[in-house]
Write a structure and sequence with these properties.
The complex is a heterodimer of chains A (317) and B (584).
Chain A: H1 6-35, H2 51-61, H3 72-89, H4 107-128, H5 132-163, H6 168-173, H7 185-199, H8 210-213, H9 223-248, H10 259-280, H11 286-316
Chain B: H1 8-17, E1 23-24, E2 33-35, H2 41-51, E3 58-66, E4 81-89, E5 94-102, E6 108-110, H3 119-130, E7 133-135, H4 172-182, E8 194-195, E9 198-199, E10 201-205, E11 217-223, E12 226-233, H5 241-247, H6 254-258, H7 266-280, H8 286-314, H9 320-339, E13 348-349, E14 352-353, H10 361-384, H11 387-393, H12 401-406, H13 412-415, H14 423-426, H15 447-470, H16 496-507, E15 515-522, E16 527-534, E17 540-546, H17 549-554, H18 556-560, H19 565-575, H20 579-583
Parallel strand pairs in B: 2-5, 6-7
Antiparallel strand pairs in B: 1-2, 3-4, 4-5, 8-9, 10-11, 11-12, 13-14, 15-16, 16-17
Helix pairs in contact in B: 8-9, 8-15, 8-19, 9-10, 10-15, 15-19
The chains are: A mainly alpha (317), B alpha+beta (584).
Chain lengths: 317, 584
């Protein structure tokens, strides 16, 4: 079910993802402003829509600066890694029938693998900056992302079991009669929490935690190198929202409207939810976060997998 | 105000140390004041803290007066510089003032850090500002001025203005020296640089840091993310407020007080004028009193709203700061209508307030009183009942009741340890004894308890404001005392004597009779006291500002040892200090 014009799809997805990430920056700032009784960016273009573009131009024209004490090549590589891994994950996302770059039969594993690689970006950035705040941020990132990755993978296995495939298109098609959020509600909640942790968003923004670590792992970054972390974060949110839609909410499936529209509606709902979380919650402490991950989330995802497997064996085998 | 010294504590002290070692001095504020030689000071203070019945458990303040150009000393013992200790007894509900005379050739006396560990920073400040050496002090270095500073700024022979000091130049060599002086040396503070084969990390938090709420530098000794020890480095916000007090007239100093705790506006005026009016023996008319209380309580709410939002932000909650600042904006709107300014109202005057209340003020207050309670309930749900917020604050940064008293902690931070002690109730100043309000306390002394106290205090302040609005007396808004400022003008165009008095009082300012007085009030952050010495002139001879934030920062290292960096930020937020209030 690959599109007849793969190059077109590729370019559309690449620019689509980047543009939506840019729009997301604007949407987040406007929504946060709405919830926080203020205006947000409303000067550049209609409704301030051009704000992100203006910011991007500014970032492009800033001096491309590497601190003299930093480990130069690692410092430059780090932001590229996050962009690379997040964008690579979009290769396997089925937006609608025929709109997918590569219909891999191990798509779920590919997604998990790519998001695991993403942690290198943060850790290396923290390390290469040779800044104590960045180092603390990098350390926190390594611990947090590694622990949340464990049950991120496990939380998906129930879905994989039900669909009987690692292929995301098969998973979407397996939700013909019922969205997986119903049988896999626990899996959905766990995946969503892990997803927020993977994208380092409040309440899981400990690697950055601006009130404690100034800017955490990217304290020393400026210009477009900072921009890559920034955009990478938003593409990450888009990716996680897409994955939630695909894995638990029937992907493009829906009545009347065209499939791609359904995909967008569902994804936007989760994008909005991500932003709402940021407006609402405080930040837990590092050790609390770890305890929560290992002592609560991991056992829960294991239990979810066990029960799903048992039910599948007993009734559907 | 009686000019007599209290007898009971005098008897006890003279019985113990003999009449020659304890010489009483009458003061305007009727706080028992005694002179004692420097050889005896440690014993006297140790006796007052540990042995006497109903002891003086808190070192309230420690400062110095440079006596060299003072004319009205009225039989006080010979002294070149006088070290002044203020202690506070919670059992007696009474201050005591101990003075130690020093001679010009040897400005030194024994430290009292072994009796009161809280004297550490105060003695450093006294050394920094006056050059008084405290023998046996654990680490007597400058605290407010840069390490490279020459001279002691509060001495009378030190210039007060930049124009008296010659042009400032920063060449490369000097810049290097200044940089060098800022370098933190762990050995100097008795810290180890490594432990068990692993190096500690020394992390500079500040002077520019989003979590320190101003120019504060804290050097952390870290083992991983765990705090082994912390050294607060203050003085970056020092503006010489006390020195300015000696240059400005009694009247023109009022706007400077606004800027000490810049979030609390008129509360600063209140403390300063309480002291001035004690010195001048001015009775403030009832309407002015109630206006003062009303505005002070409004500012308490304003200050607490700033704290509420920023504290939530310190633990990572992004939104509340916008809500509380919106509410504060409403309150500042009222302040603006009444005072014409917002953060620095400069509204109180000697003997009253600057003007009468504007037309329509009642409605503005009624609107605010109706508006705020529902918002506070909303924030309770959003912040105080939030589980992540509780997880970050409950049991973090605990100060016990004894510790709080030992280290000079006052205000909400003291009440969070369970001690119901509010100077508005215990030592009612102005007309606070005529209002009904509760003193909220909390148990545990942790960050959460401190938050609970402040949140409840906003409701109580609102109660007081409401009582003020409903019971505002009529009559003048300023005393008709000739020392009130600006003086009444009713008769100036009718007879020459009044015209001359008015002219002098406006152009030179009032001449406040010689004497000493402490005006200490319950400010939004704790006990704020102005200890003023008048030499019978148009300006103060010595203005000492005892601020609550100073001791609150001194206790910081004790509260954060063994915790992690995130906790430090929660603790800082819960203390509710203002850097200008620390450094003055």
């Amino acid at each position: 079910m690959i599109s007849p014009y793969p190059a077109v799809t590729l370019i559309a997805v690449l620019f689509g993802a980047l543009t939506i990430a840019g729009g997301l920056v604007w949407a987040e700032r406007r929504l946060l402003a709405l919830w926080q009784d203020r205006y947000g960016p409303n000067r550049v273009g209609p409704f301030g829509l051009m704000q992100t573009l203006a910011d991007m131009i500014k970032l492009f024209f800033k001096e491309d600066w590497v601190p003299p004490f930093a480990d130069k090549w690692v410092f430059i590589m780090a932001p590229a890694i996050v962009m690379f891994t997040v964008l690579m994950s979009f290769v396997v996302v089925p937006f609608a029938p025929g709109i997918i770059i590569s219909d891999l039969n191990i798509a779920v594993l590919f997604f998990l693998g790519m998001s695991s690689l993403g942690v290198y970006s943060i850790v290396l950035a923290g390390w290469a900056s040779d800044n104590k705040y960045a180092l603390l941020g990098g350390m926190r990132a390594a611990a947090q992302m590694l622990s949340y990755e464990v049950f991120m993978g496990l939380s998906l296995m129930g879905t994989v079991l039900l669909a009987g495939s690692f292929d995301l298109v098969d998973i979407v098609n397996a939700q013909r009669h019922m969205w997986f959020v119903v049988p896999q509600f626990l899996g959905f909640v766990l995946f969503m929490i892990a997803g927020i942790a993977e994208t380092r968003r409040l309440p899981f923004d400990l690697p950055e935690s601006e009130s404690e670590l100034v800017a955490g792992f990217h304290s020393e970054y400026s210009g477009m190198k900072f921009g890559m972390f920034f955009v990478g974060e938003y593409i990450g949110i888009l990716l996680v929202s897409s994955m939630i839609t695909v894995l638990f909410f029937g992907g493009w499936r829906g009545p009347v409207l065209p499939p791609i529209v359904w995909y967008f509606i569902k994804t936007c709902f989760f994008l909005g939810f991500f932003i709402l979380l940021r407006a609402a919650l405080p930040r837990p402490r590092f050790d609390q976060l770890m305890a929560w991950g290992w002592k609560l989330m991991l056992p829960l995802s294991l239990a979810n997998l066990l029960v799903t497997g048992a039910v599948k064996l007993a009734f559907f085998h | 105000m009686p000019l007599v010294a209290s007898t009971t504590v005098l008897d006890e002290l003279q019985e113990k140390f003999g009449p020659a070692a304890i010489i009483p001095q009458p003061t305007r504020d009727s706080i028992p004041t005694f002179w004692t030689p420097k050889e005896k000071v440690r014993e006297v203070i140790g006796f007052l803290k540990n042995e006497i019945a109903e002891p003086y458990k808190m070192l309230y303040d420690l400062t110095v007066i440079d006596e060299r150009v003072r004319t009205h000393r009225d039989g006080q013992p010979e002294s070149s510089s006088t070290v002044v200790y203020h202690l506070l007894s919670f059992d007696r509900n009474q201050y005591i003032r101990i003075k130690v005379p020093l001679t010009a050739d040897r400005l030194s006396l024994p430290t009292i850090t072994s009796v009161f560990p809280a004297a550490n920073w105060y003695e450093r400040e006294a050394w920094d500002m006056f050059g008084v050496v405290f023998e046996g002090h654990p680490h007597l270095v400058r605290i407010l001025m840069p390490r490279t500073w020459k001279g002691h700024p509060l001495r009378k022979d030190h210039p007060a203005r930049a124009t008296e000091m010659g042009p400032y130049q920063l060449d490369e060599k000097k810049e290097g020296r200044e940089q060098e002086a800022l370098q933190f040396k762990p050995e100097e503070w008795g810290m180890q640089t490594s432990h068990g084969g692993a190096d500690y990390m020394f992390l500079n938090v500040g002077p520019q840091h989003p979590g320190t709420h101003g120019v504060l530098r804290i050097i952390l000794q870290l083992d991983g993310e765990q705090i082994v020890d912390a050294v607060p480095d203050i003085g970056y916000h020092h503006r010489g407020a006390e020195k300015m007090g000696e240059r400005q007239t009694w009247h023109t100093y009022i706007p400077y007080t606004d800027r000490v705790d810049y979030l609390s506006g008129v509360i600063n005026n209140f403390a300063y004028l309480t002291a001035v009016e004690k010195l001048a023996d001015i009775q403030v008319p009832p309407r002015a009193q109630v206006i003062r209380v009303m505005m002070a309580e409004l500012y308490r709410i304003i200050s607490h709203l700033v704290w509420y939002g920023t504290f939530a932000q310190d633990v990572g909650q992004l939104s509340p700061v916008f809500y509380t600042f919106n509410d504060r904006e409403r309150a500042l709107g009222i302040v603006e209508a009444v005072c014409g300014a917002r953060m620095h109202p400069n509204w109180f005057r000697i003997g009253g307030v600057a003007q009468d209340l504007p037309v329509g003020w009642e409605q503005m207050f009624h609107d605010f009183i109706a508006y705020l309670p529902s918002k506070l309930r909303e924030y309770d749900h959003e912040i105080m009942e939030n589980r992540i917020f509780k997880g970050r604050t409950v049991g973090v940064g605990v100060i016990t009741k004894d510790e709080a008293i030992e280290w000079g902690v006052t205000g909400p931070n003291l009440r969070a340890t369970g001690l119901e002690w509010d100077f508005r109730k215990k030592q009612p100043y102005s007309v606070y004894d005529q209002f009904q309000f509760d003193v909220p306390t909390a148990q545990g002394g942790d960050c959460y308890a401190r938050a609970q106290v402040r949140v409840e205090e906003m409701r109580q302040s609102l109660r007081i404001v409401e009582q003020c609005v409903n019971n505002m007396p009529g009559g003048p808004y300023k005393s008709d005392s000739p020392l009130a400022t600006p003086p009444n003008k009713n008769y100036t165009m009718h007879d020459i004597e009044t015209l001359i008095t008015h002219f002098l009082s406006v152009s030179w300012g009032p001449v406040i009779p010689p004497g000493e007085a402490l005006g200490a009030i319950e400010a939004s952050k704790g006990n704020n006291g102005y200890y003023l010495v008048s030499d019978g002139s148009t300006n103060s001879y010595r203005t000492r500002i005892r601020t609550p934030s100073f001791p609150h920062l001194q206790i910081l290292p004790r509260t954060c040892r063994g915790l992690i960096v995130s906790d430090l930020l929660a603790i800082l937020g819960s203390f509710d200090y203002v850097l200008a209030d620390v450094d003055r």
